[in-house]
Design brief:
There is one protein chain. The chain is α/β, with parallel strands linked by helices. The protein has helices at 3-18, 26-34, 68-73, 101-116, 133-148, 168-183, 214-217, and strands at 51-54, 66-67, 81-87, 95-100, 122-128, 152-158, 188-194, 197-203. It has a 4-stranded mixed sheet with strand order 2-1-4-3. A 4-stranded mixed sheet has the order 5-6-8-7, with helices on one face. A hairpin with a 2-residue loop joins β7 and β8 (197-203). The longest helix is centred in the N-terminal third of the chain and has 16 residues, at 3-18. The protein is rod-shaped and about 90 Å long. The N and C termini lie far apart (106 Å).
């Protein structure tokens, strides 16, 4: 048999020897990897390394390698402290950090509270002094809806182009009426008039309760 054929046959034989008889499917490999305990489960006596390096809480740098049992002997467990493995491949020794359960609980609680706080938006509702009563009721209803959702509202009254202005007393009456109606649902209402325009700014009640006129309005 020629040399080239013998070499080729040997190569083929090696390939067959290295080929698994029952190749694992990718899904089985992924499932096996998912059954490995997560890194965060390696805490205290569950850390499988006798020699470790503690990340110094003050310098944020690894301390010299230390025996794990010596660190555990000084651990204040009553306060909620525990050691957690963070980098098992670190050289010269795996890295661990000191954590506190109460501090972690307080942090998560604060994060959840912050997530619930909705950013306040300011909605602008414009209308003219010659607005019809039906349109006025509709826009005020829209303003109340925004305030109930936690948004601030600016109600702007301004002149209508090419339309004569009503008497000033009439304009002031409309603005005062709207201001009083907004005070029934919020304790943070401000009215500012400049020239022939008036802006009524309404913010959600800081205490989370309706304004002082709510009971009268109901």
């Amino acid at each position: 048999m020629p040399l080239i054929n013998r070499m080729g046959g040997a190569t083929t034989l090696l390939k067959l020897l290295h080929k698994p008889l029952f190749p694992l499917k990718p899904t089985l490999i992924a499932r096996a990897a998912s059954t490995r305990p997560p890194l965060k489960s390696f805490i205290n006596e569950g850390i499988p390394h006798p020699l470790v390096q503690l990340v110094n809480p003050e310098t944020r740098k690894p301390d010299p390698p230390t025996r794990l049992d010596a660190l555990l002997a000084k651990l204040d467990r009553k306060r909620g402290d525990y050691y957690s493995l963070v980098d098992p491949g670190h050289i010269p020794a795996p890295l661990i950090v000191l954590r506190n359960r109460k501090a972690e609980f307080d942090k998560k609680k604060a994060e959840k509270a912050a997530a619930k706080v909705k950013k306040t938006e300011t909605k602008i509702i414009e209308m003219t002094w010659s607005i019809e009563p039906g349109d006025l009721r509709h826009k005020l209803s829209k303003a109340k809806s925004h305030i109930e959702k936690g948004d601030a509202v600016e109600i702007l009254f301004k002149p209508k182009p090419k339309v004569p202005l009503p008497e000033r007393g009439h304009m002031q009456g409309i603005a005062n009426s709207v201001e009083e109606e907004m005070q029934a649902i919020s304790n943070d209402v401000k009215k500012v008039s400049k020239g022939n325009a008036t802006v009524i700014t309404v913010k959600p009640s800081s205490s989370g309760t309706p304004g002082p006129g709510a009971s009268a309005a109901n």
